[in-house]
What does this fold into?
Amino acid sequence: MKAPLKRSVLTLSLLSLCVGCAGTTTTTTTTESPAASPEATTAASPADSTASAPTISTDGDVIIASSLPMTGSSLGQTQTIVNSIQLALDEVNSTVCDGQMKVGFRTFDDATAAAGKWDPAQVTSNSNTIAADSKIVAVIGTFNSGAAKLAVPIFNPSNLLMVSPANTYPGLTKPGTGEKNEPDVYYPDGKRNFARVVPADDLQGVIAANWSKNLGAQKVYILDDQELYGKGIADVYDKTAKEIGLEIVGREGINAKASDYRALMNKIKDLEPDLIYFGGITQNNAGQLIKDMRNVGMTDVKFMGPDGIFEQALIDAAGQDAEGVYATFGGIPPKELTGKGKEWYDAYKAKFNSEPEPYAAYGYEAAQVVLAGINEVCEADRDAIRQAVMETKDFPGLLGTWSFDENGDTTSTTMSGNVVKDGKWTFAETLDVK
Amino acid sequence: MKPWQKIVLYFVIAYFVLLLGPIAGFDLPRIVQDIIRSPSVLVTQLLVGLINGAIIAIIALGYTLVYGIIELINFAHGDLYMLGGFAALTVMGAFGMQDGAPFVTAIIPMLVALLVSAGLCAGLNVLTERYAYRPLRNAPRLAPLISAIGVSFIFQNLGLFWGGLKSFIPIMGNTAAAPKSFPDLLPRIDLLEAMGIQTKVDFTLKDLIVLVVAVSLMVGLNLFIQRTPAGKAMRAVAQNRDAAKIVGIDVDQVIVMTFLIGGALAGSAGLLVGLYNNTIVFTMGFTAGLRAFTAAVLGGIGNITGAMLGGVLIGLLSALSDQYLSSRWTDAWVFGVLVLILVFRPSGLLGENLQEKV
It folds into this structure.
């Protein structure tokens, strides 16, 4: 079963490269088969029924596409990202270049109901559809770093830019932080076509380790969910913790599909750590981990995770046991923003009548930076837009003024520490890389 | 060479040559050291394994009962158990139960939840038999199997839909596919400590309740099958359907009864797991089903005692692997042991060497 699946994914990605090449030269619009592009209807989602009717056209002189998991438990986050992108488009009335060009917006769902989260085959098929549509000049996405690994190389040959509001795996952009062949393996043509407005995990891991120490932890046990994002962040945490003198009593990858972790937690309990760090996401059973940690009697051991658990879904899953769980987040929660950020927060609440999730601000930031790039070029020229956005300098964003460095990473390093209090994530303190 | 010597030889070869030793962390000297260092952990882990095993066994019974009677692997059984968990959570929501509610006030909701989830699953299972399996009873064996997989998908999507009904059932949380928190109602009182014994071994009242309920369900089922006329009829149909018909047993009725019992067991397991693990999610049926099915095959599918034995073995194996090896290798170990046992005893630990029925 596994081998043929792998092979078909490989074939698909190979095919996609060819489709990608064709995408730049062909001028005819490709007809999309409904099976290949299950587009989520804009804004109409069960999670956010109060959202206003879609005012954004899915067509225009140029089109921005989003590729996010709109099925499954990530929806809470991704819907607010999509809302944010719409807000950004609404503010300019969906036009750029002094009203000369109309901008359309299309959402692609890279998750399937069967997987309950992003699905590699779905990412590949969506990316091929996007790359082949020459009107699409920029993509906002993906939500999961693993998905970016697949999508970026598909877009690379056609110079299609992708700006991510949420991918924090360092190896996607930074040489020497991930595998040996990273990040070059994602850019087969040599040109960089991926940028992110959110700080990468190497910073989040560093900050989490420092914060653990400040919270009084001395012995830590490190777990990860064995995915790109979770393992990457746990590696950085591991390294930093050793450097700043925390004792690491154990390190392990968990089976994300297990029905319980009682045995694992008993084993950890015996080693008497005072903090458990989990590099992973809510969808990989973080809730069950926390429950079983309390179930075996580790009531005063701290639990900390990265932004992958920084969402309401974690509290829904862990219930009362979530109380006191810590999470770092690569930015400031929407509610705590000031200045420009506060204006955006108020506008969002007024328009959608709901609380934006943490990544919503980055969705807005990504949309803004892409629109600015299109505004500079004023043509449906993928390569020129890619270059314009990648060279963004001193951009006045929601989180202060920042630039893209030569890797496409934001220069912003402000992060926040958060804790669950009375069944809600609350802002604890601002953390910065020292 | 005697067979047991052969087995030992194979194990030694596997240990040294194949992946077990170096890759999966099966480092015997270290494990022995760990056990000597803190034997209480071993006891705790054995208890964890025992309870998890008992829960797996209840689900495995559903597979084995149905297989024993109509030689069908009911792949929908795991998902039925998941629906049982959702039904139980819905009842808890209706009673307004929350984490840490006093045990006394929780007794009635728990009993109602048991009735509702067992009843719902039994009903669903009977309906499934009537409309998905019975029309295919005389078809080639593969047809009902595929039908079972289809039913499994239907159940899973039903669970996904159910989980999204937050406007009717607020306890379901905000997102359909996300894991749902099940109220923690069984008291986490350490029994040994309450009795004045100071050990590092953990055994809470919660563990005891779950274990007692699971064991009494299994004992009850065994008594039912061994001691009652209905049980006797079931055994007769399992042995030879046509001969049972000749002596006047209503085969259809026996099959319906089997599905009824299997469904009720799945429903009770759903409630039990909700109360024990405190989280339910719509995909949990697949994972649990796989383990339970493995347990049934391990013990000898069709054999009721075998399913219980298989369940407990798998529970113990997983707990010990989590403790002394690495949790990422646990599934590999569980299924590796299954492969080994099937190589040496194709009909399972307690299975009889039956001739394939034609």
